[in-house]
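Reviewer has doubts. Consider these C-alpha cells.
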Amino acid sequence: MRIVSWNVNGLRSLAKNGYWEQFLALKADMFCLQETKVEEQQLPDEMRAVQGYTAYFNASKRRRGYSGVALYSKTEPEKVEYAMNDEERFDVEGRLVTAHYNDFILCTVYFPSGGTGSERLQYKLDFYDAFLAYIENLRAKHGKGLIICGDVNTAHEEIDLARPKENEENTGFLPEERAWIDELIAHGYTDVYRHFNPDRTGAYTYWDIKTRARDRNVGWRLDYFFVSAELLGRVERADIHSAIFGSDHCPISLEITV
C-alpha cells in the first residue's frame, strides 16, 4: 500500500497550472493533502471526484482560502473524523482528517506555522501538545497502529535544513519546536524517512519561492510520515519526490504492507 502526502499550497492552483495529473501519476492508495485553501464546493469536478477514490475535505471555518486538508482514499474508511474536540481553538482552522481503517488509523495534518509572532508560536506549540494527546488517546482507545503524515512546519535536526546555524533563532527550527518532535518519537512514533535514510543530506521538502531556493536546493524537511511502533515492521520504504512541482513543498510517500 502506498500513501502520498503533499502540502499543495492551494489545491485549485494544481489543476490551473497543469500539475494535478502529474501528481496523480504517483498512483497512491491514499493521497493526503495539506494547505488546500479551498472548500469542497469550490473545486472543479476532476478534483472533487477523482475516479476510484472517495474524497474527504476539511476546510477552515475561521476564514476562507486558508489552511485546509483533504484525503483521497481508494479504500473507504470505516469512520472519518475532522476534529481534536477543541472547536473554538484548534478545530476551526481545518487542520485534520483522521481516517479509521480495518487495522490502522491514518491522520493527515497541517500543523500551524509559528511565523507571525509570539502568540502564534504559542498556538503552534499548544496545537502540538493537543495533537499528541489526541493520537495517544486514539491509540489507547482503538488498539490500532497510527500513521501520521503532513506538514509539521518544523525541521527536526540540523541535517533537515540547508542552513541550520542561520536559522537557530527562527521559527521552524527553534529548540522548543524541535523538542516536540523529540517527544513524539519518545512516545513510540518513528520518522520513517530518517529510519531508512539516517545520514542522507540535502533531502528537503520545502523551498522558499521568493528566493528561488529550490534551484539551489536551499531547503527544509518540514513534511513527515510518522508511524507508531505497532506498524514500523510493516513499513517498506519512504521517499521524497522532489521532481514533482506545483507547490513550495514536494510530495512524500510511504509504502507499507497490508
